[in-house]
Each structure stands twice: as C-alpha cells, then as structure tokens.
Write the structure tokens for this entry.
Amino acid sequence: MRRALLAITGLAASTTALVVFKGSPGTSQVAQNLPTAQPVNPSGAGTDPGALADAPGTDPAGGTPTSSESAKPSTSPKPGKTTARPSGTRTTKAPSAPRTTTKAPQSTTRRVTGNGFENEYGYVQVQIVVSGNRIVEAVALSLPSGGESDIHSGDVRNRYDGRGGEVVQKQNGNLNTVSGATETSNSYKQSLRSAIEQAF
Amino acid sequence: MTHSHTHAAGRRTGTSSRHGGRSAAPVPPQIPDRRGPGGRRLLGVLLLVGLLASVLPWWLGTPAGSLRSTAATVTSAGRITGLVAGYLLLVQVLMMSRLPVLERWIGGEHMARWHRDIGATLLVTVLAHMSLILVGYADLRNQSILAEVGTLLGDYEDMVSAFVATGIMMLVGFSSIRAIRRALPYELWHLLHLSSYLILLLGFGHQFTHGAQLYKPGPVRTGWIALYLLVIAALLWGRVIAPLAFNLRYKLRVADVVAESPDTISIYLTGERLGRLAMLGGQHFRWRFLTRGCWWQSHPFSVSAAANGRWLRVTVKVVGTHTADLRDLEPGTRVWAEGPSGTFTAAHRLRERALLIAGGSGITPIRAMLEELPPGAALIYRARTPADVLLSRELDWLAQERDTSVWYVIGSRDDPGPRQLMSPDGLRQLVPDVARRDVYLCGPPGLVEQSVRALRRAGVPRRQIHLATFEL
C-alpha cells in the first residue's frame, strides 16, 4: 500500500509538472492566422487563378460585381470581443478599393470566403453567400474534427450555418458563443468577420 | 504426537501420511538452481518505459504554451491521467494473465503485491481522469459539473459504458480494501473481481471515440490497439491455452483422500508423465475438482510434497464449505489444475541457509520445500495445540535426512513460551545467524506480521524474507 501511495503521489506530481511545463508560454503562437487557402467554389472551379491569396471568391455568375465601400451595411463588424484582434494577414484585404469598378447589381449573389483561423482544436474557415447587401447563407468550409471536436463542430454548424442560421439572422459577426465550443465559436466569428469585411 | 485414526476429517480415514515421502522419493530431490530477481527487474523497467511511452503522444501533440486557459489545463491533465489509466489497466490485466513467463519471472507473491498497488493507483488515476475531464469540459461549456455529466452521458458515444466501467472499478477497489474483503465470502469477492474484465470491455470504446490522442488513425491509435491485442493474447494464453495444455498432458486425478488431523486432509493425486512436471516445493496450483458442487470453484493450495514423479499431494485444512466437500472426493475424480506458480521456493533463496517459520496448516509448502533446501535449514513450527501439528513424522524424517533442526512451538500466541521465542532476541538465541539466512514464512496473518516485525528487528533484510501469498 505504501508503494501505491508513492505511485499515486508520483503520478500526480508528474502530471502537474507536465501540464505546467506545456502551459508555460512557449515560442509558438497557437492562434496564428494562416493565409487563407482559397477553397475552390463548386461552380467557379478553375476560374480562380489564386494569384491573390486573399481575394474574394469568384462569383458563380462570371461577372465581377464587388460592392463598393458605400454598400457596407450599417451592421458592419465591430472589434467586439477581445479575441477578435486584427490579424496580420488580414491587411492584404486593403486593395478592396480598386475593385469598385461598377455598381454591383443588387440581385447577384456572391460567395466570399473568410480568412482561415487555426485554434487549439483545428482549422476554421467560413464562407458566406451575399445577395445584395444581405448575407443569405453561411457555410463553414472547415471546422475542427475528430473526437469530441466532431460534436462541438456539429453544435457550431447547427447554430451558425445555413440559410436560417444565426449568421443570416443577425447579419453580423456578433454571434452568441456556442457553449462547449468557445474556441471554435471565436474562430468562426473571426473568419466570418473577415468574410464580411471583404464582402461589403 | 499421536496419530489417532480420526473419523472427523476424511470419510475414508485410512491412514494419515505416515510415511509420506519416504518410500515415494527414492532419490532425494535435487536442490534447484537459484533464480535471481533479474527477470522481475527487467519487467519493471519495461513497464516504466511503457508508462512514459503512453504519455508521449500527449506530449508530442500538445504545442508548448497552448494551455492558456484553466479549462485547457485541467482538460490536459485529464487527458494525461486518462492515458496513464488506460495503460495501467492493461498492465493490471497483464499481471493477472497468469502468463507462464510472468509467473516464472515475477512469481505470484510479487505479482499479487504489484496487482494490489497498481490496482489502487489505477483506481485513483481513473477517478482523477474522470473528475479532471468533467471539470475541464464543464468550464469549457460554462455549465455545472452535474450538467456536464448529463451532456457526456447524453450526447457522447460510449460514455455510458465508460461511466459503468468506472462504477465497476470503484466497486472492485472498494471490495478489495482488506477489512471489507475479509468480511466477504471468497466466492463473492472473486466473482466481483472477475467482473473487472468488463472494465476492459466497457472502457475500451470511449478511449478511441473521444481520446484526443487516439481518435485519429495513426501510429498512436494502432499501437494502443496493438497493446490491447497483446494483453488479450497474453490473457488467452495464460488462462486458457497453457492450462489446457497442462491438463491434457498430465491428466491429474484424485488417488486418495486421507485425514492428517481432525480438521485437515491430504489429497493424493496421480496422473500421466508426472516425471516431467517441472514443479518446485513451495509452489501452488489452483485446483478445480471436477465433481458436482466443486467444479465451479477454483482454490489455490500448495503442494505438500516435492515433485517425485509419481504423485502430487495437497494438504488442506477444512475451514469452509468447499474444503469440507473435498473430504468426500472419490478416487478417480478428474482434477483441473493451473500452475505451478509461486516464488516461495528454494530456487528463490538468496543465502545458503534458511529459516522456515510455519504456523498451523502453513506447514504444507514448507514441508515440500524442505526436500529441496540445502542442508542446514532450521524450522520453527508454531501450532496452537499438539493436535494441530501436521505431517510431523515426515518432518522428523526430513530433519534427519536433510540435516534440518526442527522446533515445535506449541501454545497460544500470548503464552510466555511462544512470546519469548517469537521475539527478536528469542529468534537470535535460537538461530544465531538469522540475519544471514533466508526466512520463509507461511501461516496465519497474525503470525506472519508478528514474525516479520521480529525478524526485521533481529536484523534480517527485507528481501531475505519470503512470504507465501496466494490470495489471487
């Protein structure tokens, strides 16, 4: 029994040591923003040259109607939560101005893909479908998967995604966090905000 | 010591083992070579390496500095304890696989001790794993721990069985606390303990569906499954194949049952090819006597005579219903035996000379071992009354033959004589070189504890004290 006590104490101590050691801030930042790997749109496949990593997705209609700055809806993304800090790669979004060629026909739908965000559990990237100045659909292109993440990601998807999800209802990036999936919710919101910024 | 023909013990009283050993062992058994602790140490090191390897996937898969929130830290600790618990469970089952190699390397006595210590550690680790994960997840989801239990049970695959497995483990651990265990009938306790195989089964799923290190295909998952397969193979080999081979080979049968004392019987067994049976005096088998009412119980009894190529003998004190039934065994009854096992043998001696201390029916393994110890051993035989002294003729004969001094110490534990003798001074007076001898102890727990204390104070190193334990 004495040895069992020793073993238990030893295990407790080493578990604590392991966790403390891993918990100490190291060199690698986890929440780094990877450059958006532009997913190929189902319809516009092949037409995307992929030259500009951060370019908005090609629209399925073939035209290039990008809304001007003025078309930005009043519910523009706010910095909001502290976690939504501006990211490094997002700065490439700047050249949105030159794209204001023509006034976009309000009826056309566009697909805009947000930046990808890596968190502790996996990679999150969101695509929105914008019709005029309304978001009509949101799709998570990538969410953490495997193990418990499947369940959390499923919760996130059910709440936010689709034509009737919270994104479409709220029309902005200030979504309620899905309980149990805080990190993934935050990454989703970050990606969504970057998509909204590109779209409007 | 008189050998009255008593009718109390055996149905066929016949004669007690008056000449046991003399006529049957024409050639004195060989003194076996020593088996060092090398195998045990090697296995210990291997198991430790395995423990480190089981936590390695977590270490490699967790980026430094990633545990920024309390929830992540607690969850991580839960994952580590989960991996450790999963590994310990496999070790625990391996310990009980009765794999012949393990029995030989470690021996039942050490194995039983390891099993108990690892078992306690395992239980605490599993409880820690469960609480840490619950606290971590509840924090992550911003809900109470009770609500989290509900979420895990309701939404997570395989979690119901994992909780059941934990419940069984707690029950098994609880029933193994010494005081509680003593209060339970052996059969009930054993049945409860057998249900721990369910833990292996029920705990399996959740590791792979939710284990952060195990859910995704890869070397870690494959290795973990391979460990399971290995342990199950060891279990099959040690518990099914090896005993099957043993019993098909030796085909043991009851030859006779004789009374040794009013409450003690000897069962003689014969079989085939017994000359090739590698068995050491002091070892035990788990015996299953294939008659109505007895076949479903398996009990460990030491052999009470060294291997002689012709027969085996167990000497059993009638204490319970099972042992009472053994008095009525018919000659010819088939016997299923598993063994031999145990390191309570002359082969595990560290010194040239030995002191043997037996209490009551604890004489049986020591009687067998006496045939194999180098000359010059000393035997102290404690018994409450002269009638409790068993096999005294054989002991006297062996004392002569093997140059062994035998002291019968009769009386209650509190009588002045035994008290004085079983003290450090008394032992030193009786056996002046006691500190340089191996001491083999077998008897009731009280006697064993008292003797160990006295021996330690008399300067006998712990590793020279050998205890016969066959509780498992």
In short: The mean pLDDT of chain B is 85. Chain B has 17 helices and eleven strands. Residues 435 and 460 of chain B are 4 Å apart (CA to CA). The interface with chain A takes residues 55, 58-59, 62-68, 72-73, 76-77, 80-81, 84, 113, 116-121, 124-125, 128, 137, 140-143, 151, 155-156, 209-212, 215-216 of chain B (CB under 8 Å).
